[in-house]
Amino acid sequence: MILKIINNELLTAYLNAVCKDLQKSFDALEDAEISNDTFSFYTSVASVFSSKIEGEAIELDSYVKHKRFGIEFLPDYTKKIDDLYSAYTFAKTNVLNRANIGKAHKLLSKHIVAKHQQGKLRTQNMYVSTPDGKIEYVAASPYEVETEMEKLYSDIELLLKQELSIHEVFFFASMIHLVFVKIHPWNDGNGRSARLIEKWFLAQKLGYKAWFVPSERNYYRQHQIYYNNIRALGLEYQELDYSKAMLFLRMLPDSVNNVVKLYSND
């Protein structure tokens, strides 16, 4: 299997390092009793914690009351999370591909970027900055974005056709997340998109139960570690070192293997 942009040099080491009980832990995942035909608790979890990673001031309990029981809050408190919830809901019934990734971004970025930027690749330089204004990452140049995304779309299409073990599925889901966020193809909404696409890939390969994986919750609980693991690859897109990605790659299976601890400690 020859991939165009996803680096798999860590795959063997990853397979040796990741808990062998991953399948057992994954099989034990169940939907929450509070879910019904019109409300998904775990989609709320994903939407809330993915948004909190980006600095949104939203609490899970409040959002569940809003989404499940119709309790009203100020629109500014819930609208971006509602948009992301809609994107996850869309992903559950649509194939992971170029067109649908763009449609998902249109949904999740409805109140983040201007309408003409929704689902559209950026055309300007992109820098990721620290809260005090220091540049901590220089993303792919606007002249590279389309080419790099075409490579990623091609790799995703190929991987979706391959027979993969559950450990390989988790490895490639994390790598898709990492490559996407390093390209940083949108003007905004890149992190939310990357975390959605990661889980979308899991679901395409492993079935509906993948939507119960509390990855976004795990990333938020360790959000400084999450960001540090992403930063570890390097400052500039052209100089990224994917041999330093192991700590990031292990976070996704850890969110399944430690699911009981993850919820009990919140």
Describe the structure.
With 266 residues, this protein is mainly α. Helices cover 58% and strands 3% of the residues. It has one domain (11-27, 35-264): Fic-like fold, CATH 1.10.3290.10. A two-stranded antiparallel ribbon has the order 1-2. Strand 1 and strand 2 form a beta hairpin. Helix 3 packs antiparallel against helix 9 and helix 3 packs parallel to helix 10 (215-221). The longest helix has 20 residues, at 142-161. It is globular and about 50 Å long. The model has no long low-confidence stretch (mean pLDDT 94).
Write a short abstract of this structure.
The chain has 266 residues and is mainly α.
Topology, pairings included?
Elements: H1 11-17, H2 22-27, H3 41-53, H4 60-69, H5 75-92, H6 98-108, E1 127-129, E2 135-138, H7 142-161, H8 166-183, H9 190-206, H10 215-221, H11 223-231, H12 246-249, H13 251-257, H14 259-264
Antiparallel strand pairs: 1-2
Helix amount: 55-70%
Derived from helix and strand composition plus strand pairing, the structural class reads: mainly alpha
Which percent range describes the beta-strand content?
Answer: under 5%
- State the CATH architecture: Orthogonal Bundle
CATH class: Mainly Alpha
Q: According to CATH, what is the topology?
A: Fic-like fold
Q: Radius of gyration over alpha carbons?
A: 18 Å
